[in-house]
Write a structure and sequence with these properties.
mainly alpha; about 80% helix
């Protein structure tokens, strides 16, 4: 059940985002578009509430509960940049805006970009772990929440792997092709 809510929230994120951008640019309803874009974070609230209700209802925490916490962490940390990414493309396509900026291809600029993305991943990991620990505290039964503690290790592993990109671009910066 919770897996369906997670999938629904992911679909909901993109539907609300697309609706806000369509209202903003092709329909030229700026206020409606802005209101819809402000509703994008409500998708995370729906998932958080569904997860808490499930756990408080007596469910034993499993893979999907940890996945929900990870989803919330990454959605909060990367959500703003995802909205900005989509907004730049819609503005270019439907409102004559400038072409979207590309990520730097090489040099220090690329290393800075990778470290900035790693910072978002670190924030996502911290938020995900905070949600996991809050779930453990809310349930108050270590036997029912054992799987959630394992998710902190998973998130830490993902972050450790992610660190390879900025470290690599810092130590061996990509050079422009000649």
């Amino acid at each position: 059940m919770l897996l369906a809510v997670i999938a629904g929230c992911e679909i909901g994120f993109w539907v609300v985002l697309a609706a806000g951008l369509v209202a903003r640019y092709p329909l030229r309803r700026r206020r409606t578009g802005a209101a819809l874009l402000l509703c994008v974070p409500l998708v995370d609230v729906v998932l958080l509430v569904a997860t808490v209700i499930d756990l408080r209802g007596g469910a034993t925490a499993g893979f999907t509960h940890g996945l929900a916490a990870a989803y919330i962490g990454y959605s909060v940390a990367f959500g703003h940049s995802m909205v900005r990414w989509a907004d730049e493309r819609f503005a270019h396509r439907f409102a004559g805006g400038p072409p979207p900026a590309r990520k730097p291809a090489h040099g220090r600029a690329r290393a800075r970009y990778e470290w900035r993305e790693f910072g978002k991943a670190a924030a996502a990991t911290a938020l995900g772990c905070a949600v996991l620990l809050a779930m453990v505290a809310a349930v108050g039964d270590s036997g029912r929440t054992e799987a959630l503690i394992g998710w902190t290790v998973r998130l830490g592993t993902i972050l450790a792997i992610w660190s390879l990109w900025p470290i690599t671009y810092t130590l061996w910066p990509a050079k422009p092709k000649t």
